[in-house]
Amino acid sequence: MDAKMKIENEITRKKKVIEDCENMMDRVPKHLRTSQETALEIYRRELESLEQELAKL
Amino acid sequence: MSVINVTPLMDITELILSDNVNEGDVLLLEEGIYFQSVAVLKNYIRIVAKGPGVIFDGRSILLDAFILPDVVGVGIEGINIRHYRASGILVEFGFGHRIINNRIHNMLEHGVEIVSSRDNLIWRNEISYCYDGILLIGGSTNNRVVENVVSRCYGDGFESFLSQDSNNGFISNKSIRNRNNGLEMYGSNNLAFNNLLIDNGLGVIVSQERDSVFIGNKVKGTIFGTHIIFEEYTNYFAGGNNVVCNREEGIENNNGQFGVFIDNEISYNGDSGILLGEESTGNLVMNNKLVCNVPENIIDIGSNNNIINNIEKTCELCESPSAVCEGYSDEEDNNIHESKAGVN
């Protein structure tokens, strides 16, 4: 698989993770939401970084 | 530095943030089922299971079991992790973590995801039914991935994602029956040594940049490709590997340049043993033993490749790779210890 397709696939996956998590947040007990937000922030940064990588190609 | 007993009823993230926990402390986890995502926000915290029954269950609601953002030297040892929506253990901007002896299964994302991090040890974990088993991404370097078993994942067993994920070591791991690649090794100067890659969709892919090394590994039973080198990978080294009973070419060097392929045993593959593609150039293929690869043991349609001193045997009369491989059993393969997903 070439790098472009690889990054595109990963972007799709990451978007899905983020979207799923945002949709699930109501079901997460309140005291656990902060850690979910921490994880979400990491995935958002990762997504941004992948999009920048893709733009370079 | 102290040892702090932890039960499933305690909020571990809060505990770590409190003044009761300091660098170097050990959190000793009692057996039981923990419904938590633990964010470790202090350095040198060691989270250790007291017994085999420490289970983190995300109930398909929580994202990751352990999140290590921008911290150093955290240990996670002996924990069962299951049913999270993302990864079992997620590391970002960290270094020197020790992720040891955990059993991770049924993640929607990865068993262990290392993002933009370096110098981590990932040792003796058992991972199954995830997307990738262990993923190094976002400029992750100098990580040591040793003696892990990844099986039945629907992505890759082990992966360094792009060119910036370099200088990593994959040593003595087992990658078994993963849907995509046993090992996807992008980046420069990565090492794969003594790994067993069995019955994966594809064995190993090497791409982007240069100088990686693949030594003493066994690749067997792949379906869509065995050992593929592409994107003009430069100065690759593959030596002492055993490449046997794969459906396609043993080694397919599409357009790699100045690679060295030496002392490999390449047998009974359903396509050629070594294929040097049209755009490959300046590769050295030497002292390999090639037996009964069909149609040819070595095909070179590239330019300026050097092929020296290889031992080539054609198939015996009435012998074919598929017939030989059907009856092929070797003790090592039969004793592969796969993770038993769902057992905990």
Structural features, described:
The complex is a heterodimer of chains A (57) and B (344). Chain A has helices spanning 3-24, 33-56. With 57 residues, chain A is an all-alpha fold. Chain A has one domain (3-56). In chain A, helix 1 packs antiparallel against helix 2. The longest helix of chain A has 24 residues, at 33-56. The radius of gyration of chain A is 13 Å and the shape is elongated. Chain B has a domain at 211-328. Helices cover 5% and strands 40% of the residues of chain B. Chain B is built from 3 helices and 39 strands. The interface between A and B is medium-sized, with 28 and 31 residues.
Descriptors:
heterodimer, A: 57 residues, mainly alpha, 2 helices, 81% helix, elongated, B: 344 residues, mainly beta, 13-stranded parallel sheet, Pectin_lyase_fold/virulence (chain B), Parallel beta-helix repeat (Two copies) (chain B), Pectin_lyas_fold (chain B), PbH1 (chain B)
Offer a quick outline of the entry.
Chain A is mostly helical. Helices cover 81% and strands 0% of the residues of chain A. Chain A: Residues 4-53 form a coiled coil.
Helix/strand-derived class of chain B?
mainly beta
Structural class of chain A: mainly alpha
User: Count the strands of chain B?
Assistant: 39
| C-alpha termini separation of chain A | 14 Å
Shape label of chain B:
elongated
The count of helical stretches of chain A stands at: 2
The greatest interface between two protein chains, and residues involved on each side, is: A-B, 28 and 31 residues
Average of pLDDT of chain B: 94
Task: Give a short account of the largest sheet of chain A.
Answer: none
How much of the sequence lies in strands of chain A comes to: under 5%
Largest sheet of chain B: 14 strands, parallel
Question: What is the share of helical residues of chain B?
Answer: under 10%
Shape, principal axes of CA atoms of chain A: elongated
Strand order of the largest sheet of chain B: 1-2-5-8-11-14-17-20-23-26-29-32-35-38
Radius of gyration of chain B, CA atoms, in whole angstroms: 22 Å
SSE order of chain A, one letter for each helix or strand:
HH
The residue fraction in helices of chain A comes out at over 70%
